[in-house]
Amino acid sequence: MCECYELKASARELVRHFKQLDLGQREVSRLAEMHPTDPVLMVTRNSTGYLASRARWGLVGSFLDLAPRNPLINLHSEDLEAKPFYGKLLKRNRCLIPATAFFEWQAVSGGKRKVRISDSRRKPLMLAGIYDQHRLAGTTCAILTMAANDSVAPIHQRMPVILTQEEGAFWLAEHDEFPSEAYAEMVLPASRGALVTEVLAEPEVSPQLAFAFA
Asked: Phi, psi (5° rounding) for residue 87?
């Protein structure tokens, strides 16, 4: 997944996905591009309903003394449960990160081109994520990725885990035992809906090729 996504949804659009979510328009940063280390909107669940808050994009584990220069912005979902530390976060610190699109750089002859990927119905995408608290970095998060589905595979081999409204509610709910089977189904490429792709930029020509044709 590219290191960039878009959030241009209004507070009203996001509240439609979550009951009892107190979210004002001032709390939504409508930005064309969100980058690593940016403060991003994160949705979690508490005893009274859903909670909207800010987290820095780039997971900094609570066990670390200092925040790394390049924290993990994406984590492979397929083997996450088996990893000692990240598996614990998966079981207790799940979140959703709203987006209206994400971006990938597609390799083409002579360079790369930027592609915007969004929902075919123009609805916000709910990206599955995990988060943690660090004494210096504060609240940080990472987006989970999966193998690309048919819509994204021609562009990139990975894509974020995108959840439906029902899946999002299940994702944020508390479970006595982590629902491993349901989780495994949610990260299967075949189960994801169609996405729309839009080329935004002409291929970037490498300096060597530019010099050769100068």
From this structure: -65, -35
Residue with tokens 């979510």: 21
What is residue 211's predicted lDDT score, i.e. its pLDDT?
42
- Over residues 17-34, mean pLDDT: 72
Q: Coil, strand, or helix at residue 149?
A: coil
Write down the pLDDT at residue 209.
44
Yes or no: say if 106 and 113 are a contact pair by the CB < 8 Å rule.
Answer: yes
Q: With CA atoms as reference, report the closest residue to 132 among 183, 99, 92.
A: 92
31-34 and 5-7: which strand pairing?
Answer: antiparallel
Q: Which tokens is 126 given?
A: 């709910």
The whole-angstrom separation of Cα 193 and Cα 30 is 25
31 to 46, 119, 136: CA distances (angstroms): 27, 17, 26
Is the model's pLDDT at 144 over the cut of 60? yes
- Name the token pair of 190: 């075949």
Give the number of other CB atoms < 10 A from CB of residue 43: 22
